[in-house]
Structures are given as C-alpha cells and as structure tokens.
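Researcher: Next entry in the queue.
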Amino acid sequence: MSRITRANRFALLCGASILSLSALAAPSLAVAQEATPPATTTDDDQSTEVGEVVVTGLRASLASAQSIKKNSEQFVDSITAVDIGRLPDVNVAEALQRVSGIQITRNYGEGSGIAIRGLTNVRSELNGRDIFSASGGRGLSWEEVGSDLLAGVDVYKNPSAEMIEGGLGGTINLKTRLPFDAPGHVLSASAAYTHYDLANDDGYNASFLASDRWQTAAGEFGALLNMSYGETSFRQDLDVVEPYLVRTDVPGFAGQQIAVPNGGGFKVGFGDRERFSAALALQWRPNDRTEFYLQALRTDYTFHDNGLSFFAYGGNGVPLDLAPGATFTVEDGLATSGSFVNPGVDGVTFATTRQTDTTDISFGGKWRPTDRLQISADVQYINSKVDQQTMNLTASVLTNTSGPRDGAGNPLFPGNYVFNFDTRPSIPEFSASNGYYGDIRNYGLTAVLPYAELNDAESWAGRADMRWDFEEGGFFKDFRAGVRVTDRTAVNRSTTFGTWTAIGTTCANWSSPSGCFRLADFPQVAEQFPFRNSFLNGEGQNVFGDVWMFGLRQVGNPQSVFDFLNSAPFNQNVGFRSFDDPAAQVSNVSETTYATYGVVRFASTVFGKNWDGNLGVRIVKTESASDGFQTINYRDPSFTSGTPGSAPTALSIVTPIVGGNKYTNILPSLNLRMFLTDQLQLRFAASRNLARPDFGQLNASFNISPNYGTNAGEVIPQGVGQGTATGNPFLDPQTVDALDIAAEWYFAPTGFVYVTAFKKDIKDLFFNESGIENYDLLFRDGSVAFPQVPFNISRLNNVDEGTLEGFEVGGQRFFDFLPSPFDGLGIQANYTFIDSNAATVAANAQTGGTAISVPIAGLSKNSYNLVALYEKYGFNARLAYNWRDDYLQTTQGVGTGQLPIFGKAYGVLDASISYDFSPALAITFDGQNILNQEFQTYQITENRYRDYQVDDRRFSVRLRFRY
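Model: Structure for this entry, 963 residues:
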C-alpha cells in the first residue's frame, strides 16, 4: 500500500481527534475576553494522574514519590525530578534500578536494558504517548535518554484500561516539564564533568531550561525550552573462555568424559557517546474550561564503538588438537589447565558508528463544556532514523600446517606452537609457546567486513477521550471512554554480513602463495596490542601477552581501508554494499491499530471502611504487513577448479516475500483499594495486556547458505545448509494475565512500608524453532543445478507459555527521633523475589545436542536495593547498593549458538553528596561502581567460565543553578 494512501486513510481515522480539537477552539476563542485568571492546578485528572508535589530537597523528593504511590488507584512507583537529579545515575535506566521489581542490564557500563518483575518486554512512553527509535523495536533505547529533560518517571506494573496497551512487564512513562507546572518564570542551568578511570578519559554535560507564563487578553500563555548536551566515554575489557566440549581423549584421563574449553580470547571495546536533546512546550489557557498545548522533543544520539579482539578457537564445535605430551589438570570432570597445538587464531579490529535521530511532536487540548463533562484530544507524529556503519579487519595467526606453501612445497609460515590455557586463577590465562603471538611474521591478512544499516520509522497517532463526572456522594465517581488510532511504518535496510571479503585469497592452507599477504609486509597498518599493560586494570597481562593485529587508526576510517585494498598489490574492489544490491536486505513493515476503551470509577463504604477502584475494558484491533526478500547465497555451480587459490563466484537467488497478520484483543482491568485506617491500605489489581512483536521481529527477509565443508573451491552442497529468518510476519502478540495484591502502611510523609505479591500468566511467548526446508540451486541461465537442497532454518514462532510469580517488600524512613545531627539520617530498602516456570530452550554440543529448559532471559530470582540517606545543614547524600542474582543472559550469543550464558550475581555501589549553597545554587559529587566490581558470566554451570568483564568507574562533579 502506498504511503499516500496510508496517510489519507489515517487522516480519516484521526478525524475524531481533529474535530474534537476544532470543537475546543471555537468556544475558547469566543469567551477568551471574559476569562478569569485560571488556577495553576485543577482536579481534572486526580483519579489516575497524581498531583504534582513541589520538591526542594532530598526529603521532599522522597515525599513526592511516596505521595504518588499512595494516592494512585493503580500499582505505580515514581521518581521525581529532584530524585533523578540527585541520584548518582547518568540515565533513566540507572535511576530506575532503585525501584523494587526492576532489574537492569548494562551496555559498556551504562544502564541500557530494563526488566520489570523479570520481564524485559516493557512499554516505554513519553508523557503518556508512544516513543521509540528506528532500531527495530517498539520502545526507547534507555541509554539514549539523559535525565536532564525529565520532570519525573512513573512505573506502572498493572495497567488500567485507559492506558495504551503493550508490555508484558509493565509501562514506564517519562514525563517532561510544562510551563504551567511552575507558578512563574524559571531559569536553570547545570554543568558536569566526569572522569572514566578505565578509559582514562573525560566527559562533559550541560543543560539549560527557560520557562515562563503570561496573562493576556486572549488568556494565559506559557512557553518552555529545555536543552541538554553531553559527551561520555567508556571502555570495557573482557577475558573470554570458549565453549567447553566433552572429550574422552584427555591425557591422563583417557576414557573419561572431561569438559575441556575449546580455546579462549579477549576483547577491548572503547569509545564515546554523544547526546543532544531539546524539548519545547507551549500552553494556552483561554479560560478556566479550555487548554491547548504543543510539545516537541528532538534527540540526537551518536555512539562510537572501537576495539579489538583476539581469539584462539576450534570453530563449529570442532575439538582443538591436543599438544603432544601435554599435561592437563582436571577438577570435578572439568579441565582447568592444558595445552593444544596450532589452534586457529583471529585478531579482529573493529569500529562502529551509530547515529540515531528522533523527532516527536504532539498537540492537543481539553475542554470542559459543563461541570461534569470533559473532552480531550491529542495528535502525535514521530519520525526516527538510525544510520550505522561497521568495519571489521581480521588478521590471522598462521603455522606450517594452516598456512599455504610455495611452489617448492615450503610453508610460507614455517613455525608452529603450543597453546596453553589455565582457568584456575581468578582471571583465566592463555599463552603461546616461544612468544609465537608476539612475532609479526606469523600473521597473515585475512578479511575485511564492511557492514551498514539504514532504518527509518514513522508514526502517526490520534486519540479522543471523554470523562463524565457523576453527582457527588453516589457509588459511581466518573465514567471515561475514548478511541485511539495509530499508523506506523518502518523500513529496515541491511547490507548483511555477506559483505565479508577475503583479502587476496587469505593465507589459508588451500590458497596460492601469490594470494597470501603477510602482516609483516605492511607494517603501516599493523599495531601491537596497545592495552596490554592496562588490560583488566593491569591484572590481565598474562592473557595472551603481546599480540599483533590491524591498527585502530585504520579501522576508524573506512575510506582509508578501501583505498588500501583497492590499490596494488591487492587491487580489490571493496566498499559498503549498496542497499539496492539484491544481496542486501530491505524490509518494509506497516501496522495500523484501532483501540477503544471504557472505564468506570467508583467508591463506597463497607462495614465502616472506605474503598474505591476502577473497572474497565480496552478493545484493540491490529493489522500488520511486512514485505522483504528471501535470499539464497551460494557458489556458482559451473565453477571448475583451476589455479591454486582460485574460488567460485558467489551467486544469489532473491525471492520476494509478503506476509501479515490481523487480530483483535479484549483487555479487561480491575483496580481496588481499601482504606483500613488513614495510614494502612490494601490494594488488588487484575488485568490482561498484550505485547506485539517488535518491528524487527516482523521482518520478512532472511538469508540462507548451503554447506560446502572446508574446501573453498567446492560447489556441490554437503549435507544441510543453514539460515536464520530475521523475523516472522505471521507472529501473534504475546499476552499476559496479571494479578497483584498489596498492603501499604504510610506512617510519615517520608515513611512507609509495603509488601506486594504478584502473579503473571504468559501465553504465546516467542521462541526460535528450527526446521528443514528444501530449495533449488540454479545455474546462471536459471536451470536447476542442485534440486531440493536441504536447509536448517531457524524462525521465530509463538510456542511457549508459563507463569511468573513472586513478591516485593520495601520501605523508607528518616530517623527524626535521633539527636542532631543524626536526625538527618534515613534509609531506603527493597527486596524482590521472582520465580517462574516460563522457560526458553537451549541446545549445544555441551548438552550433547539435547534441548534443555532454561529460565526467561533477564530474570534474577532475587534482587535488592539498600540506600543510606542523609539530609541536613544543606547537605544531601546517598550511598546506594544494588544487587541482583544470577540470570540468563542469552541463548543466542555470538560464537556460542544456543548455549545458555548466565550472568553471575552482581552488586554495584554508587554514591553522591551535594551541598546547597542557596536555593539557587548547588554542587554535587557522584561516584558510580566505586568498588570497581567485575562482572562475570558462565556457560550452563557456574564452574564453566565464559566472561570476566571490567568496566569504568565514573567520578563526576555537577554544578546546578536555578533562578
């Protein structure tokens, strides 16, 4: 369907919103001259929109968050602007980790992934509306969001029917500021400096806000502009153990089944992030019954990731060759040290630049024509673009068995070596005999991989809502209803990793000497490992020692790489593949949704106890469509081997694919609250929600390739080929039925204790399934060369279901009863327990190919926060410790296939202290990960190591000014 047709259709679907806005404008203009000065607050949305609380310090900010939790009819936790500003947190994810039930993951040291009660499928909103970036998902990349633009964050764990559907775990609503939030003009600014110890680099941040409101003959106007710019740095060091293989030929343990690591390696990634954000808000209140607004947000995020990796490995589950006369140590059936001879070794130098730009514009208004009726309407437009370029350069270690031979049969790389591993130290160690890796003459140039993505996403959304207030004193308080329509499209373009290109014919043992280029012959592009002395904070110098690879200065400039390889002696045509190339992947995904809801709010008294709640239902219809291409990449069947090192031409069969789905969901919800006393209340909530597939999961395109064995000149398929479908356009949404029950005791303005039990029944979970599919391979003239070649293709399907349940307990208080100055002390604490029988399936050589059940990815059974507080004499201080239990990291890792990789239990200590010189000026000192905690992962069981990871500690100083 054309874009114009879709736009016209959407314009009609949003007619209710436009007409409602027009209806608001007419009476407003007519009575503007008679309008009396409006109050700064109204009770229009007291039922679900909790009132703003003005906060001026740490204690007041906690009182604000407590008030939101106490007064809402729903299960909600909040963080106020002051809370974010004074927490030692660089972004929203790191601030939210303090909330019970929330667990986060980190990307290069910064919080990036959020799970609510163990579920990573979380809906993100901006001011109660959609917000997303064009990265294939439905939500925001949390690391792209700084906290400077936010007035607060609300976490909804069990929705009501008037909330937009989406998210198995819950909804996180980011709230920006409006000019009518403040009684008058506001001018504020901040500046920050941060040092990153492992990167040994610095970052900077500055923000600015100006807001004011004016009373005129046409009513009251308000305007706000908020801008933020920041640069951050990072570095991450990893020591990695390759997957274990069970062997029966281990020296000294012959005939016994011993799990042996099949190699090891390291990786260093470093770079920077650049964030720019600007928010504009305009409000117009012609009279006390009408209000219009416009909100706009622009975010630009640039991510530079550079680094290098070095791995000795067997590849595809092939066991490494045991070194003659090697000695192995074994503990509990696990080899902890030993030796191999001449493993394959690749050193990869890489660089990625990703630019994300998002524009979000919304306008609307609300009108109260009578004392009982309120009408509102809102229209939103989002446009997002992601542009990414990646360059990988590979140099390989060669020996007299893995390298080529000259015309006289002499090896170009005459040496060989023994590879040693030892996992007994806290940091696993690897080395080569006779300093083999430290000699540049033992390396050959192998490959270049230029990869690119270009994604665009666009969305229109319109909604119209009404509320009718019943007479006071009755059982029913009000009735709410509304409609919402969305139209969203996404175009995802990828060059695919089929752009991997051999340099010459590589220096493999099947290539010709003339096609082999040695690193030693091109010292201008070579570099010895530059981070050896500082690797893992200086504790990883025995992880391989000195090694060689392509230089970092080359990989960061793709054009210089292309110029190098396009000139003599290589004379290769290398560059980024065009997105119009048939071998590239281009997918178009579109989605239209129609939603309507009704909610009734009520309150009464039973046996002398007051209670209230709401009951509602939301009905949602979804229509999605996706088109793309199935691409079979294979070798020219007509090729016949000629000179040594010659290789067949790559061919492709490209077939268009079109798919889609339609479904309607009924989503009821119930929220109840009983007030046992003025301080003690009980809550109950039951709801159904859905989580649609991400747009990347609806991508219809996929690539498959035959299996040709190890001979680069082979053109006859051997056995079963492989392929992975990017997505599945026929996926149904995942659904969740949620129950919550809680007891809350509010004994002071900044003191409360709560306990919450919850249960979630989840259906139609997504999981990758593999199956055999057969396709013909063709000659260039279109005739069949090899009929019905089998391919094992992995596709995402709705195949799983399960239950998740647990409880949260927590609270906060200040110790006002202590003598001064100790009466400024306070504490926050919470603990979450989650258990689940919902699972995913993993299988690998370590499991003997047998499928095993593993937990939901990202779910820690236990987690807690412990925060010490202090506020007195102008000082505000926090010491915050966050801990989470082991959790499944992935079953789709790079180099590990379906092998389950678990993150070990992990705790981080952060701290901040600030001093308010006056209500207008404050300074804050922050420290993140101040204990320099390493992060470790393991394979299936804890004694099978995977990663030992070290990230930056961050130390910063911030100066804040407000007038």
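Model: The chain has a mean pLDDT of 88.
Researcher: Noted, moving on.
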